[in-house]
Write a structure and sequence with these properties.
The chain is 32% helix and 17% strand. The protein is an alpha/beta fold and 160 residues long. The chain has one domain: Rossmann fold (3-Layer(aba) Sandwich).
Amino acid sequence: MTHYRQILWVDDDGKDRFPFEIDCLKRIGWHINWAESAEEAVEKLLEKSFDLVLLDQVFPFEKDGRHKDVWSGCRLLYWLRGRDAAPHGAPPHDEWARLAARKPPQNGNRDVMVIVISAFQDDDVDAALKTIRLPPKLLPKPVDEDLLLELVRQAPEISE
């Protein structure tokens, strides 16, 4: 039986936006699990462990695509790392407060390596990301496949 390493890719652009990147990752032994909202990502992070999370910076909270904001990736990462407070500078948001009230995963996902992939630049968001325990690596869009592979290869194996 072949063992595939597990990635959770959180991006509302959908799988069709990244065919080359997905194919490249599959060729080197990765299985991609997809989430298009924070709601989906939280469910997946609570149900199983991943070796790596690829995280868009701007995506919606809900599956229906509403409540998209520039702090989405940062908020999800704060929750994942077990931070109680919202990122410094992030405006209040009822839906995100509901997420923050959920207990973060107790599996290996709390310490999973995260790569934030984004075309969006915001100094406040970037500064908040740097304050997180185990800060994410940053990868700009459009994705450079060689850089993606270089970063992915740094991920320690932790999934069950």
